[in-house]
Recover the amino acids of this structure.
């Protein structure tokens, strides 16, 4: 629709388009897209698509946008994925569009600046150092103390994130092709102290006028559950959980530090033996099955809230809490061509199953480099009590079968993936 | 020097280098420079120079800086000119360097965002509209009411700024080669209502921890004086002048609106029949002879303050007000090869002359496009009372002689210059 109440938007995205239901939302009028050539066919003929070599090329994105602004009003710039967050912030700042400007977008996507900003504001984070090439890691690690985590300053999905425990392990890694991705980075690298985590939380919030008008705190499946076969997922904390309030208090500190006054926030927080530490903040809805899980748990649609807050509108939250606990779990992938995979109908036989969404099927090729495809689907199921989760995940692991054969033309992957974090 | 107390800096600049005395300052250790190829020879062999096609290419500047950060500490990023202000802000934000980040740098150099930011904060500005190509100017002007001023969103020196009084004048301009520069812009254009100015002020301030620790308000020579032959210049307002306090109050509002908490600010303010209006803010010392004039008037060195605040140091202001009024005046230039120009010694015979600095000499070619060379020198002189200024400028106009011949190879100029504003 292009009526009076519709907003004209510019979408900046690469490997994942804005969810189709948002593109079809009655709030949205004309849609223009800046993307990379290989993703141009995500969009229909009614969408004006402009391509750039990389959506992280700020100059190219800025210049490509001029033609879109010349063609008509742009009410909001939307970026659904981690890639492009900084570029879309730059567009808003440069062209004077409402929403998250470059400074906040950068603080929510550039992990070094994020850590620096949080530490300066007194938010507890792991010790860290920036380095500008891989060879500087041992010096930084010696200052911080081994073991360390090394990651690119930009990126999602734990792609090219590596844990290193000693100078010797670093030497082996640096000489190995697993480090190709980190060596090729054209941005600084972040070296962080590796901390022992007692629990890992994520906090998903809708922020309006500087205040979280919705905030859910969830706990990721612990290492024991993940060892069942890579079933990464989470479930919301009970309201009475002692860490719930503390995590929301940290969220408020983080929002103030990065200047996020309106939008959707995804915060990672760890409990360590020394207390809670903030991991990372993202200014977008999370991936995996988290949005769907929170929708079933609370009746809150984070993508709708993302659209509304991007348009400068108050989010229409209609809380309808479920009586049970909604657990989300991704189905683990493996590189290669899929020869067999459990169909959704069979997975739906899991007791308490609420929703099964398969993103891969027989014949699909899973590229070791495409971190966004590191799951083959998402299962959401209900339990009455937290204690039931391990047993239910064990049942899921027994139901789920994935067979792959090496696919011709699939390389070893240019990067190294530590663990998928939504 | 490279001792413990020296700071390593990255200079981002194009047509004008950081003043040599700053490069030689004892605060400065290692100097790295990102500039454009034609300006690389401004620097000596001890300076690491990296070139990019344009210092306004944010991606190129960001990527070029990675090698500089990899080579060693960068304590501050310095940009002495209007060009590169946004890019240097981006570098600070992206690499986590202290000083003015992208959001503030953009609000202090992107004239549309500047106006939008000031208007949103309730600061009085002229009515304005952004347009994305020259052909949209008449529609914007019809909304605002003719006459209008059209300018690129980025730029200094009033280059490519044009006053248009009617649709007919626009048509003639758009069809003429004078509009080549505006038509070639790859950024939005700003259309503003042209307002009748009763007086034009500039306010130069040193800002530390959000507060102006020094602020001088000066008045530009009025149109009558400029009609003497283009002697652009200014003189400080007496402390008792009724507009002085009002301009400083506006400065405070502007600093808050753009988020400039530390640095050197140059603010343009106009008195109109409807009151004071803010023109533009820049986050750097002004050009022309203004820095030298203020140094003689108040004993304050804005470049030193620029360096100190860029390094995160409190500015060392040592106020030594002069007993007289220090007037600055630029010597007007004309395109062509200089065949005769009054020597400094002869200009120094002007009564009250304090300092004469010639930037051009016989044989030099003045390019119609090089707005930074639109003067041939600067004369500073003392008067006891404001009323003496017109007479003294008349004497200067009689002393100053400039003869040029058309220079082979000099074109008509790609742009259009309205009036030189420092």
């Amino acid at each position: 629709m292009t009526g009076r109440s519709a907003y004209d938007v510019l979408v900046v995205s690469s490997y994942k388009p804005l969810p189709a239901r948002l593109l079809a939302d009655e709030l949205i009028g004309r849609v223009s897209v800046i993307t990379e050539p290989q993703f141009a066919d995500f969009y229909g003929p009614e969408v004006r698509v402009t391509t750039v070599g990389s959506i992280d090329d700020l100059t190219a994105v800025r210049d490509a946008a001029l033609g879109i602004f010349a063609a008509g009003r742009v009410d909001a710039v939307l970026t659904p994925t981690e890639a492009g967050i900084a570029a879309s912030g730059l567009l808003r700042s440069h062209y004077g569009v409402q929403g998250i400007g470059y400074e906040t977008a950068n603080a929510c996507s550039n992990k070094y600046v994020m850590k620096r900003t949080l530490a300066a504001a007194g938010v507890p984070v792991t010790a860290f150092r920036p380095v500008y090439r891989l060879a500087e890691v041992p010096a930084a690690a010696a200052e911080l103390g081994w073991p360390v985590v090394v990651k690119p300053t930009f990126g999602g999905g734990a792609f090219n994130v590596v844990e290193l425990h000693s100078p010797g392990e670093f030497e082996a890694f640096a000489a190995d092709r697993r480090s190709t991705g980190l060596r090729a980075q054209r941005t600084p690298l972040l070296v962080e102290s590796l901390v022992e985590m007692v629990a890992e939380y994520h906090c998903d919030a809708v922020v309006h006028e500087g205040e979280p008008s919705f905030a859910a705190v969830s706990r990721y499946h612990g290492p024991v559950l993940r060892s069942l076969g890579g079933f990464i997922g989470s479930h919301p904390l009970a309201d009475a959980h002692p860490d719930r309030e503390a995590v929301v208090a940290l969220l408020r500190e983080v929002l103030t530090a990065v200047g996020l006054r309106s939008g959707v926030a995804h915060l990672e927080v760890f409990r360590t033996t020394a207390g809670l530490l903030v991991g990372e903040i993202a200014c977008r809805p999370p991936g995996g099955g988290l949005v769907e899980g929170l929708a079933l748990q609370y009746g809150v649609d984070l993508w709708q809230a993302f659209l509304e807050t991007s348009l400068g509108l108050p989010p229409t939250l209609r809380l309808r809490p479920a009586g049970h606990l909604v657990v989300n779990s991704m189905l683990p992938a493996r590189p290669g061509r899929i020869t067999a995979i459990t169909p959704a109908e069979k997975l739906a036989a899991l007791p308490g199953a609420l929703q099964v969404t398969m993103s891969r099927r027989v014949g699909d090729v899973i590229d070791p480099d495409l971190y966004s495809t590191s799951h083959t689907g998402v299962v959401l199921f209900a339990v009455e009590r937290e204690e039931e989760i391990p047993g239910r995940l064990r049942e899921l692991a027994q139901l789920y079968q994935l067979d792959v054969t090496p696919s011709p033309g699939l390389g070893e992957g240019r990067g190294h993936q530590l663990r998928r974090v939504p």
